[in-house]
Amino acid sequence: MANQAAGEIPVIEQWDTHPLDLTDPKRRFKVSRWNYFLKDPATGVVMGYWEAEQGQEDLGQGGDFDEVMHVVLGRLYVTCEGRELVANPGDTVIIQRDRPTRITVREPVRVFFVCYPMPDIAGYEADIRAGRYPGDEK
Amino acid sequence: MPKQVPVVVKWGDIPLDMTSIIGKFKRSEFNAFYTEPERGFVVGHWLIEDGYEDYGTFPETYIFYIVEGQATAQTDEGDYPVGPGDSLLVIPGRRLRFVVKEPVRVLYITSGALDIEKAQEIRRQAARPSDKAA
């Protein structure tokens, strides 16, 4: 799916408005599926819903974009600067692109997330749909 | 010195130190716990009650993730109720009135905001009791 035209952007997005049709090419979680319900190439903002079970992911490794995760259900265990913090439902996690942050999932979670600024949204999504991890050699 | 960006933010961790200057609300208090001025990207918490704000003429994109409470998005195509777990997408050029009656808690994300630090300072000043009385 390419970037959206304004007319394709819904007014209200609910958890099940769009299928969670993307999965992690690296299989770092027992379950990890998400969607991008808003893709705005003008500002590089991408938003979506993510559902995951057991696993972990290292973020903030100097990539292109920051990520904001809002916990809807379950808990995220967030390790940053030598400390583990727990993000409960209603809490928001900020992952800066150059601040190493490990996200661990120990129980099923639902998360609303925002990535920003993603320089090539369509290319990033195409890589994932092709089973490639963006940035890895093609 | 740049402000330290928190890793995990809980509701109540950071004071709601700003108020609306355009929206017509009985109560409107918000903060910004992550601001990236270069692209006008802001993430924060917003507590609102009884009132409305009109959108569609601003250059920014707003996303309101409803944490608690019920609200309505009134558009030319009809009214859309929004509740906890829903995201309301406010894009430039699409006229929309965001109407709240009961207290609503929102995680908001703004992108493309112009001169965001100045805009935030104006809203901080508006929220200060001494400034309101002046």
Question: How would you describe the overall organization of this protein?
Answer:
- The complex is a heterodimer of chains A (138) and B (134).
- Chain A is mostly beta strands and 138 residues long.
- Chain A contains 1 helix and 11 strands, in the order βββββββββββα.
- In chain A, strands 2, 3, 4, 5, 6, 7, 8, 9, 10 and 11 form a 10-stranded antiparallel β-sheet that branches.
- Chain B is mainly beta and 134 residues long.
- Helix content of chain B is 13%, strand content 46%.
- The mean pLDDT of chain B is 91.
- The chains are: A mainly beta (138), B mainly beta (134).
- β9 of chain A pairs antiparallel with β1 of chain B.
At a glance:
The complex is a heterodimer of chains A (138) and B (134). Chain A is mostly beta strands. Chain A has one helix at residues 121-129, and strands at residues 12-13, 22-23, 29-34, 38-40, 45-59, 66-73, 76-80, 83-87, 92-95, 101-105, 109-116.
Please render the helix and strand layout as text:
The complex is a heterodimer of chains A (138) and B (134).
Chain A: E1 12-13, E2 22-23, E3 29-34, E4 38-40, E5 45-59, E6 66-73, E7 76-80, E8 83-87, E9 92-95, E10 101-105, E11 109-116, H1 121-129
Antiparallel strand pairs in A: 2-3, 3-5, 4-5, 5-10, 5-11, 6-9, 6-11, 7-8, 7-10
Chain B: E1 8-9, E2 24-30, E3 34-36, E4 41-55, E5 61-68, E6 71-75, E7 78-82, E8 87-90, E9 96-100, E10 104-111, H1 116-127, H2 129-133
Taking all Cα atoms into account, the compactness measure Rg of chain B is 15 Å
Percent range for β-strand residues of chain A? over 45%
How far the N terminus sits from the C terminus of chain B, by CA atoms, comes to: 31 Å
Number of strands of chain A: 11
Overall shape of chain B: it is globular
- Count of DSSP H/I helices of chain A: 1
Number of helical segments with 4 or more residues of chain B? 2
Share of residues in strands of chain B? over 45%
Oligomer: heterodimer
Unreliable stretches covering 5 or more consecutive residues of chain B? none
Q: Decide which structural class fits the backbone of chain A.
A: mainly beta
The helix-strand sequence of chain B is EEEEEEEEEEHH
Mean pLDDT of chain A: 90
How much helix, percentage-wise, in residues of chain A?
Answer: under 10%
Mean pLDDT over the residues of chain B: 91
Protein chain pair with the most extensive contact, residues per chain: A-B, 39 and 36 residues
- Alpha-carbon Rg of chain A, integer: 14 Å
